[in-house]
Specification:
Blueprint: E1 3-13, E2 16-19, E3 23-27, E4 31-35, H1 42-50, E5 57-62, E6 65-66, E7 77-80, H2 92-98, H3 104-107, H4 126-139, E8 144-148, H5 156-169, E9 174-178, H6 182-188, E10 191-196, E11 199-202, H7 207-211
Parallel strand pairs: 4-9, 4-10, 7-8, 8-9
Antiparallel strand pairs: 1-2, 1-3, 1-5, 5-6, 10-11
Length: 218
């Protein structure tokens, strides 16, 4: 079992504070959801944890060991950004090789993806590309995986299959994800946080989603 924990993350642009009092924890076997209104800083938080965004201060720890600045190269944490993950000049088959994943892992749940293996990412629909990218990070060999809007553009029938795979893969890694479709987040996650006013709040009751300004009503 592994533990990812982060806090003391401060980020501001000029006089505008994005992140000021953040604390989250994720362990192997858990799917942790991060909710927040547009512009609340969810993407900035995930990027700072992954290591692609520099912040004024941060403490990222795995198994209580603080990660230094070069931890990105150790492939401890995988990250699916909002933007495209796979460069447009790569085929999907090449992407699988880069992540050292055999297509049979995907084929059992999504056999239809076999038709696009030899295509480049800009030759298929956005939903197909996103589905493939989610699976790459889910099946990647990382201790933890972060997902920023994984369900955007993905067909509902495919999302239902993805939810089952998330539930299966959490036994091997810790997962943190955020998505505008809070129904899916609330269904799939066994821990939930809301990011508001630069702070994270642990959610233990649905009424807190209203209290912290994420929902107007349930």
């Amino acid at each position: 079992m592994n533990t990812l924990e982060f806090d003391s993350i401060n980020l501001s642009y000029g006089l505008h504070t994005i992140l000021s009092s953040v604390h989250m924890k994720c362990i192997t076997g858990n799917i942790v959801g991060l909710l927040g209104r547009n512009g609340s800083g969810k993407t900035s938080l995930l990027q700072s944890v992954f290591g692609t965004l520099s912040t004024e201060n941060k403490s990222i720890r795995i198994n209580q060991e603080r990660l230094c600045s070069n931890y990105l190269s150790k492939k401890l944490i995988g990250y699916l950004p909002q933007c495209d993950l796979i460069p447009s000049f790569l085929t999907f088959s090449s992407a699988l090789k880069l992540y050292n994943i055999d297509f049979s892992k995907l084929e059992s749940s999504f056999p239809e993806l076999g038709k696009i293996l030899n295509k480049k990412t800009n030759e298929v629909s956005g939903g197909q590309r996103r589905l493939f990218e989610v699976l790459l990070i889910l099946y990647s060999n990382h201790l933890f995986s972060l997902f920023d809007e994984p369900f955007t553009g993905v067909m509902p029938i495919h999302i239902e299959r993805l939810i089952r795979i998330f539930a299966e893969e959490k036994s091997k890694k810790g997962i943190i994800l955020t998505d505008h479709s809070h129904r899916y987040i609330r269904e799939i996650c066994n821990q939930l946080y809301v990011l508001a006013n630069g702070q994270t709040y642990r959610i233990t009751d649905d009424s807190q989603l209203i209290r912290y300004g994420y929902l107007n009503e349930l």
